[in-house]
Amino acid sequence: MDFIRYAEASANLLNTEIDDVDALVGHLVGREWLHESCTDRDCMLLRKFQRELRPVFEASGAGDTQGVIDGLNELMVRHPITPRISDHDPSDLHLHVATESASVAELLVGESLLGLATLVCDLGPSRLGVCSATPCTNVYVDTSPNQSRRYCSDRCSSRANVAAYRARQKAVATA
């Protein structure tokens, strides 16, 4: 299990509108084996999880370390995780969230929480955030070496930089 990938997938999950099964299937690109198992109940549970998880990213963005830790701990109590050692490749043992009887929603929630908890323990609770670009509300995981990420995407970063440049040009022109 690549914990950073699962942490980033949790941000992607928060940034995805899961209105129906088709939207959930669209979110699961590269995981076709899950498509047939997607249900309306999964969509409802994932929308609820999105509302529960967003405050963790907001707490991190606000520098509230205890809020991040308490939020993740509370979510792990509400959504117990059952990790298993995967041996489908004996030369690459790694952890997976147990999936034998888990629904698609339970699998995604478990992966998100295990990935985020590990990321917070390894890199710190300040590695989650909400995009600084106006009016974007997407979240992100900051894995940059100098912890400098402020935007959810290159598009938002570019848009904010262009807006700042234009504001500076306008200020110079009116001065």
Question: How would you characterize this protein structure?
Answer:
The protein has 175 residues and is mainly alpha-helical. The protein has one domain: Jann2411-like domain (Jann2411-like fold). Helices cover 55% and strands 8% of the residues. It contains 6 helices and 4 strands, in the order H-H-H-H-E-E-H-E-E-H. The chain has helices at 3-14, 21-27, 40-61, 65-78, 104-123, 154-174; strands at 83-86, 94-97, 128-130, 139-141. The strands form 2 sheets. Strands 1-2 form a two-stranded antiparallel sheet. Strand 1 and strand 2 form a beta hairpin. Helix 3 (40-61) packs antiparallel against helix 4 (65-78) and helix 4 packs antiparallel against helix 5 (104-123). The longest helix is centred in the first third of the chain and has 22 residues, at 40-61. The radius of gyration is 18 Å and the shape is globular. 29% of the residues are buried. The mean pLDDT is 91. Pfam families: zf-CGNR. Residues 127-169 form the Zinc finger CGNR domain. It comes from Nocardioides ginsengisegetis. This is Putative RNA-binding Zn ribbon-like protein.
Annotation keywords:
175 residues, Znf_CGNR, Putative RNA-binding Zn ribbon-like protein, Jann2411-like fold, ABATE, mainly alpha, two-stranded antiparallel sheet, single chain, 4 strands
How does the SSE layout of this entry go?
Elements: H1 3-14, H2 21-27, H3 40-61, H4 65-78, E1 83-86, E2 94-97, H5 104-123, E3 128-130, E4 139-141, H6 154-174
Antiparallel strand pairs: 1-2, 3-4
Q: Would you summarize the structure shown here?
A:
The protein has 175 residues and is mainly alpha-helical. It contains 6 helices and 4 strands; from the N terminus they run ααααββαββα. The chain has a single domain, classed as Orthogonal Bundle (Jann2411-like fold), CATH 1.10.3300.
